[in-house]
Design goal:
Number of helices: 10
Strand order of the largest sheet: 7-8-9-6-5-4-3-2-1-10-11-12
Shape: globular
Bound molecules: S-adenosylmethionine, iron/sulfur cluster
CATH topology: TIM Barrel
CATH superfamily: Aldolase class I
Largest sheet: 12 strands, mixed
Oligomer: single chain
Radius of gyration: 19 Å
Number of strands: 12
Number of domains: 1
Helix content: 25-40%
Order of helices and strands: EHEHEHEHHEHEHEEEEEEHHH
Structural class: alpha/beta
CATH architecture: Alpha-Beta Barrel
Distance between the termini: 30 Å
Length: 328
């Protein structure tokens, strides 16, 4: 068998790289109000270090990379990192997940550097609610402009990710779904996960099984293929609609059996599973002058440490780091 596999024979071909723990928003479901110390400058992986890790991973079989954060676009020169990764021949898909607030400014530069596409996180279409959810001095109009800018320069398909929370924004799922009918919006509903720092802040999960049922008032949802990629979402569309609707249900219908990913945190730890605290320190090895083969050995070890499945159902949620350091 060639390529990278975990202990359960799942092929691993996807690396998510958190480029910073900083963010210009403070979304209720992602970060606690206060008390998250920032990583220091020396702790953060340099772009050259990230390139070295991705090149080693590519030799093992990784061919998809997603840049995430924190908010990746608050780190200076992310487009230059994209250009560096584009030079790695085996990497055939480079994408980025962003809150969209700075996308209008950087979309063209990112496209020119070789970025293939973006996912934009957006949880409401109401300006006041946007401020309440993101707890920051940013505006919904910036994000909508960012989505349009990404589309205009060809970072397609632009996927819009909405984390659905009971009593906070679940009354807007029909509005999001309706946008897929006349516009090329690819909306993905995501179940809220009780990650570190937000598990006990009163947010309530909504099962996407219920949400899907609610959407039937707009028409019959028919299964369809994803616009691109083969991730964990299950896709549907209304007859004749221009966009699509995806459901990502890590809690009610977990997709661990098809998990194909590893994560690299902003401070250089390999994380085998988003929903487990276990991490493997790659940065120390890298900074001690490790060879390419040694790095590859550690990446293989991380793959073999992937658990068969997360343990949210047993009440075992990750405790150590907020999503801003892991990258979602
Ligand atoms: N700042 C960027 C953004 O918001 O898209 C990238 C980082 S963010 C941590 C990556 C993704 O994780 C976002 O789509 C966000 O909605 C999702 N996320 C964060 N906390 C979550 C939670 N508790 N449950 C489900 N999704 C979450
Ligand atoms: Fe919101 Fe993304 Fe920032 Fe988390 S990292 S607070 S999801 S914008």
């Amino acid at each position: 068998m060639t390529g990278l596999y975990d202990s359960f024979q799942r092929p691993i071909n996807y690396l998510r790289v958190s480029v910073t723990d900083r963010c210009n928003l403070r979304c209720v479901y992602c970060m606690p109000v206060a008390g998250v110390p920032r990583l220091s400058h020396e702790d953060i992986m340099s772009y050259e270090e990230i390139r070295t890790v991705v090149a080693a991973a590519a030799e093992l079989g990784i061919n998809k990379v997603r840049l995430t954060g924190g908010e990746p676009l608050v780190r200076l020169g992310v487009a230059s990192l994209v250009a560096m990764l584009r030079q790695i021949a085996a990497i055939d898909d480079i994408s980025l997940t962003t809150n969209g607030t700075l996308l209008g400014r950087y979309a063209a530069e990112l496209k020119q550097a070789g970025l293939d596409r973006v996912n934009v996180s957006l949880d409401t279409l109401k300006p006041d609610r946007f401020k309440a959810i993101t707890r920051a001095d940013a505006s919904l109009s910036e994000v909508l402009a960012g989505i349009e800018a990404a589309r205009a320069v060809g970072l397609n398909p632009v996927k819009v990710n909405m984390v659905v929370m009971a009593g906070i924004n679940d009354d807007e799922v029909l509005d999001f779904a309706a946008r897929t009918i006349d516009e090329e919006w690819h909306v993905r509903f995501i179940e809220f996960m009780p990650t570190a720092g937000v598990g006990d802040n009163g947010l309530r999960f909504v099962s996407l099984v219920d949400i899907k049922e609610k959407l039937s008032s707009l028409g019959k949802l028919e299964p369809c293929l994803p616009a691109i990629g083969n991730g964990p979402a299950r896709y549907f569309k209304f007859p004749g609609s221009r966009g699509s609707i995806g459901f990502i249900s890590p809690v009610s219908q977990h997709f661990c059996f098809q998990c194909n990913r590893l994560r690299l945190t902003a401070d250089g730890k390999l994380r085998p599973c988003l929903l487990s605290d276990e991490e493997i320190d790659l940065r120390t090895l890298l900074r001690s002058g490790a060879s390419r083969e040694e790095l590859k050995g550690l990446i293989k070890t991380a793959a073999t440490k992937k658990p068969r499945c997360h343990r949210l159902a047993e009440g075992k949620a990750p405790q150590h780091r907020p999503m801003t350091q892991v990258g979602g």
